[in-house]
UniProtKB/TrEMBL annotation, chain B:
Pfam families assigned: ABC_tran (PF00005)
Location of the ABC transporter domain: 12-249
Highest taxon in the source lineage: Bacteria
PROSITE patterns, per database record: ABC_TRANSPORTER_2 (PS50893)
InterPro entries: AAA+_ATPase (IPR003593), ABC_transporter-like_ATP-bd (IPR003439), MacB-like_ATP-bd (IPR017911), P-loop_NTPase (IPR027417)
Keyword DNA repair among record annotations: no
The protein, known as: ABC-type antimicrobial peptide transport system, ATPase component
Gene Ontology cellular component list: membrane protein complex
Keyword ATP-binding among UniProt keywords: yes
An example molecular function term from Gene Ontology annotations: ATP binding
Keyword entries, A-Z: ATP-binding, Nucleotide-binding, Transport
Family according to the record: Belongs to the ABC transporter superfamily.
């Protein structure tokens, strides 16, 4: 039966896609990946948000009101970090009596206090090798932690109304020697009920028996933190809360209005107590965590954006390739009377189909990716809250919209080109290689664009152009972006000269195959260039990240050796987990004869002009152990009582100079006036903004912890090092480093960041792989006869494959070289721009650079595997015979 | 020893060569039990109407296609059982090829095309020989040009030079003058004849053109996959009458 269709082209488009599903996959592979990353990051953050919402609602389930102490104004800004970190600022707490007072109200059914603070589980490893004959060698101490999550101590609560923690095993802590551990920590670190465990809470570690293992609102532990749960009075004693609690939970009697009771409680002590609804408290706590997740989500989206940007290049290329392979078909349609406009629409409707399918697959892959990420994090013991994965309709629509828009935009140019196919093409026999227009216009146009970019960039570096609305960093950034676009336009024109550089070399190594490969890549410079461009984007970003971080490392190294004059530095092993260094350590170190000079640093939060500031207290010796530069006043003046030293930047910001009076609000002390005696520059990361001399400052209690110690020794010897280490080992949670250790630590942190960036940018290289595969497939298809001829006259299959691999490596090297060059140049520009901010070192890691170029070449060869196999298996007779 | 040796100078021969395309009901017998010897230093033309199997015979002899049954001997060795790699090596080292069109790699110069088989083999071409070949085909002044800068006749002569550059045992030519005008066609054929007579090469050529066949020492006619006649040193008239006779049957 003959069917009549009103939309024949639509039908053709549909039939095409149905017949060649692989095409859909090849064309949209990059969109699939990009959309997948967007969707995955969205699912991941949305799911965690809802899980955290549920978690905090769960925590306060059964609780009606939460009573918090009102913190002093200046301390409010710090309440977000839960009082962790090296700065020991005094958080106000609620005295125990208040609990009873609230409990006594007739409207209150129950009231109980919560105590939370720092506590660190400690495990002991094997005995270390040491050469001490008389004493027992110390054992290695291991700080128990789940990933990077914090370590907490809290009170076990027995109230029957809202049990946050519920025992999985064992019994609650009943005395000063018992502790309940969270189930996550117990599982991760192999603890069981009845085990002895050492806990560091406050200044001295003590040993406890694990009486039970508990879970928290159905998760092992909130946020993966480790929890040591003590009985109430023990918790107060250990967590610096004797006679006090951090907050009070209130359950209201059934027949009372919650809001009335809220006001009742507040009126008990409105100066010190703040009463909020439990839901509010839950939302507040959930929000602070969600902000952190949003940041992570933003980063993921940036990388997804890069993947999609690279994808747009590849889609455009692939469309062009597919349409070229269908020249005959399109030309036949033209010959049969289809208009150019109809051909254009045919191609666009095909791309619409593909984009919808691709985005759909992307969404599916994204869901899979989200599951994988969640499982992965679970595997690495991050202890995220349990909960279903949530895909919002909004997120799915955004993913779909991005996928469809990018695909269709990328297909516009190829579609226009396809519509211009001559109806004569169908009759011709040969497979034509397209003859491009002159590349000269491109060269001029691209050079023009790049010149504008270079102008903006060098304008900042050599101070001849300063665009009014942009900061210098923005100007450099925009300049770099414009240069990048300009170079992308130029690449086809420089393909030939670039390949020319390699030609001799390739001919020498690979003989005639090298010659053939180089000639082939010169044959379609546009295609070679746009394929290389996709790789160029990834490599630009990678080498940018590489050079910036290498330079930062070099910078850190120089800085550390210049500014740390001390032989050793002591600090908390993990600033997120431990509050500081027990004061006993400095005393023990000073007892050593070999220690010639030691300085302590302490810090506390004070109020200045209604804002929080960190006040540091230092020993006089600090100026000999850390490099400081005098700006105004003198050290001698600083040694006097009731005087204060100020960092250069702070003095400038606050408009203070020597002789001025400053009024500080000191916790538990009240207001106190100081005279500015000394303004100086602390050349490393300063521990505080205002400084006083430790021996002059009575308000730093003796129980305080030190934040940093610096000391010099008479002579560094292995024996002494061992002696020092064995002292430091007695203080778990404290780390000692010499200069090499400091440099290494700084480098490790930078390297970790770099590795994360590398991981994400690898996606763009992966996307570029598809582009290379597509280009080579077309290349092979166009050269069917050539390859057939070569096979006929005696070229091995292996040699054909090798030829394709060589061609692929040329594309890869082209993209990698351009990208690396641009990345290094951009990094250099950036560092020059930041010179005023103290970044002076520009350093390129040669090994990393070549590593990534090597990876690109390998990637190129991998991408060539399929086209190469296809080429080598080509049927000779089909290729050379004529009908 | 295979059974078909009549003269000591047989270079390549087919023994009970059969080639069937397709499966069962749809199968077509392109070559039907063919036995034939080709002698050294001879210019042989294979003729026949479309579908007679002449191209298939050439492809099987040249190791480009595999027989369905029967053997092909290059001198004393059976090449019909070789694997792809061994066969490729034979094509490279022992055979030369001239096809109807698309004989040259467009990105390589004439000279690079001529030395291509040697380059692929990783060998240095025998330059004295190559020079001699190039002079014989009269393209010395065209060596640095790319194929698209050469006329059709020049391209085919470069292809012929390439076919001889490795001193192959046999040169296979598949309608070498098919795409050429009559002047270029004659030049090429004269050259091919001189290659056999003066440089002692062996050529097996497929053609449907009696004029082209008249340059050969021997003309083999195929019809329906069988040898219909075998003429020694025929004139053009003899060939035409034979072709006419074949198509009349």
């Amino acid at each position: 039966m003959f069917g009549f269709t009103k939309r024949p082209l639509f039908l053709i488009a549909w039939k095409n896609l149905k017949t060649y599903p692989v095409r859909i996959f090849l064309t949209t592979s990059s969109i699939i990946l990009g959309v997948a990353v967007i969707i995955a990051s969205n699912i991941f953050s949305e799911s965690n948000k809802s899980a955290f919402d549920n978690l905090f609602i769960g925590i306060y389930e059964g609780v009606d009101l939460v009573v918090q102490p009102i913190q002093e104004d200046f301390a409010q800004g710090f309440s977000g970090d839960g009082g962790q970190g090296p700065v020991s600022f005094e958080v106000k707490k609620i005295p125990d009596e208040k609990i009873q007072e609230i409990q006594n109200l007739p409207s209150v059914k129950a009231a109980w206090g919560d105590v939370l603070g720092y506590a660190q589980y400690i495990k002991f490893g094997d005995r270390k090798d040491c050469h001490s004959l008389s004493e027992e060698c110390p054992r290695e101490t291991i700080l128990v932690q789940n990933g990077f999550a914090p370590t907490f101590g809290a009170a076990w609560d027995n109230n029957p109304y809202a049990a946050q923690w519920s025992l999985v095993e064992g019994k609650p802590p009943t005395n000063i020697r018992e502790v309940v551990m969270d189930v996550l920590t117990a599982e991760n670190h192999d603890f069981a009920v009845g085990d002895k465990v050492t806990v560091l809470a406050g200044a001295t570690p003590a040993t406890f028996t694990i009486s039970g293992i508990a879970e928290f609102a159905n998760v092992g532990s909130p946020g993966g933190a480790t929890f040591a749960l003590f009985d109430f009075t023990t918790a107060q004693k250990l967590l610096d809360s004797t006679g006090k609690v951090d907050l009070i939970n209130v359950v209201v009697e059934n027949n009372y209005d919650v809001n009335e009771v809220k006001e009742q409680i507040a009126s008990l002590d409105s100066e010190n107590l703040n009463v909020i609804n439990a839901q509010e408290a839950a939302a507040e706590q959930a929000d602070s965590i969600k902000q952190g997740l949003d940041f992570f989500n933003t980063i993921l989206n940036v990388f997804a954006g890069i993947a999609i940007f690279v994808g747009a290049f590849i889609i455009q290329n692939t469309f062009r390739i597919l349409l070229l392979q269908r020249t005959k078909e399109l030309s036949l349609l033209r010959a049969l009377g289809t208009s150019k406009r109809q051909i254009y629409r045919l191609v666009i409707s095909e791309s619409l189909f593909m984009s919808i399918v691709g985005s759909g697959l992307g969404i599916g892959l994204g869901i899979g990716l989200a599951v994988a990420v969640k499982e992965g994090l679970q595997y690495f013991e991050f202890g995220l809250p349990e909960g279903p994965l949530v895909l919002t309709t909004e997120a799915a629509l955004v993913g779909l919209a991005i996928g469809v828009t990018v695909t269709i935009l990328s297909s516009l140019l190829p579609a226009r080109k396809a519509s211009q196919v001559s109806p004569m093409e169908a009759i011709r026999d040969s497979i034509s290689t397209p003859k491009g227009k002159s590349l000269f216009i491109r060269l001029i146009f691209g050079t023009l664009i790049s010149t504008i970019g270079f102008g903006m960039l060098f304008g900042v570096l050599f101070e001849f152009l300063d665009l009014p609305t942009l900061s210098s960093l923005q100007q450099v950034g925009f300049g770099a972006g414009i240069i990048f676009i300009g170079i992308s336009v130029i690449t086809p024109s420089i393909t030939k000269p670039f390949v020319f550089i390699f030609e001799k070399f390739y001919n020498l190594i690979f003989g005639i195959l090298g010659k053939l490969a180089t000639e082939n890549s010169k044959r379609t410079p546009r295609r070679t260039a746009s394929t290389a461009s996709a790789l160029m984007i990834g490599l630009t970003l990678i080498s940018l990240a590489n050079v910036i971080t290498t330079s930062f490392k070099a910078q850190a190294e120089t800085l550390i050796s210049e500014v740390i004059l001390a032989d050793y530095q002591v600090s908390a092993a993990n600033v997120f987990a431990s509050p500081g260094i027990p004061t006993g350590l400095s005393e023990e170190l000073l007892e050593l004869d070999e220690v010639t000079k030691l300085s302590r640093t302490r810090a506390t939060v004070v109020g200045y002009n209604q804002r929080p500031l960190i006040l540091g207290a230092v020993d006089e010796t600090v100026f000999d152990l850390v490099k400081t530069d005098d700006i105004e006043g003198s050290r001698e003046g600083f040694l006097k009582k009731d005087t204060i030293g100020i960092l250069k930047q702070t003095a400038e910001r606050e408009g203070l100079s020597v002789g001025d009076e400053v009024l500080l609000t000191i916790p538990e002390e009240g207001e106190k006036g100081f005279t500015v005696s000394y303004i100086f520059d602390w050349t490393t990361q300063p521990p505080a903004e205002f400084f006083v001399l430790l021996e002059n400052s009575s308000f730093f209690s003796d129980e305080s912890l030190d934040t940093e110690l610096y000391f010099n020794v008479y002579e560094k010897t292995p024996e002494l090092e061992e002696k020092i280490n064995s002292i430091v080992d007695g203080y778990p949670g404290v780390a000692i480093r010499d200069e090499d250790g400091l440099v290494e630590e700084a480098n490790n942190q930078i390297q970790l960041l770099l590795n994360v960036i590398y991981g994400f940018l690898s996606i763009s290289i992966f996307v570029a792989l598809f582009g290379i595969t597509n280009t080579l497939s077309l290349s092979v298809y166009e050269r069917t006869r050539e390859i057939g001829l070569m096979r006929a006259i005696g070229t091995y299959r292996k040699q054909i494959r090798r030829m394709i691999f060589i061609e692929s490596s040329i594309i890869a090297i082209f993209g990698a070289a351009l990208g690396t060059g641009l990345g290094i140049f951009f990094a250099w520009s950036l560092i020059q721009t930041l010179a005023d901010d103290g970044f002076t070192v520009f350093s390129v890691s040669i090994s990393q650079t070549f590593l990534w170029i090597g990876i690109s070449i390998i990637a190129g060869v991998v991408a060539a595997i399929l086209p190469a196999i296809r080429a080598s298996r080509q049927n000779i007779l089909e290729a050379i015979s004529y009908e | 020893m295979h059974p078909n040796i009549e003269f000591m100078n047989v270079i390549i021969s087919a023994n009970n060569l059969t080639k069937i395309y397709g499966e069962k009901e749809t199968s077509v017998t392109a070559l039907d039990n063919i036995n034939i010897n080709f002698n050294e230093m001879q210019f042989t033309a294979i003729m026949g109407p479309s579908g007679s199997g002449k191209s298939t015979l050439l492809h099987c002899l040249a190791g480009l296609d595999r027989p369905s049954s029967g053997q092909i001997y290059l001198k004393d060795s059976d090449i019909s059982t070789l694997n792809d790699k061994q066969l490729t090596k034979i094509r490279r080292d022992s055979f030369g090829f001239v096809f109807q069109a698309f004989n040259l790699i467009p990105t390589l110069t004439a000279e690079e095309n001529i030395t291509l088989p040697a380059s692929i083999a990783g060998k240095k071409p025998d330059m004295d020989w190559v020079k001699k070949v190039v002079e014989t085909v009269d393209i010395s002044d065209r060596l640095t040009h790319r194929p698209n800068e050469l006329s059709g006749g020049q391209q085919q002569r470069v292809a012929a030079a390439r076919a001889m550059a490795t001193k192959p045992e046999v040169i296979f030519a598949d309608e070498p003058s098919g795409n050429l005008d009559s002047k270029s066609s004659k030049e090429l054929l004269v050259f091919m004849k001189s290659v056999v007579e003066e440089l002692n090469q062996t050529i097996i050529m497929v053609t449907h053109d009696p004029y082209a066949a008249s340059f050969a020492n021997r003309v083999v006619m195929l019809k329906d996959g069988k040898i219909a006649s075998d003429l020694e040193e025929p004139t053009q008239e003899e060939i035409i009458s034979e072709v006419t006779a074949l198509s009349d049957i």
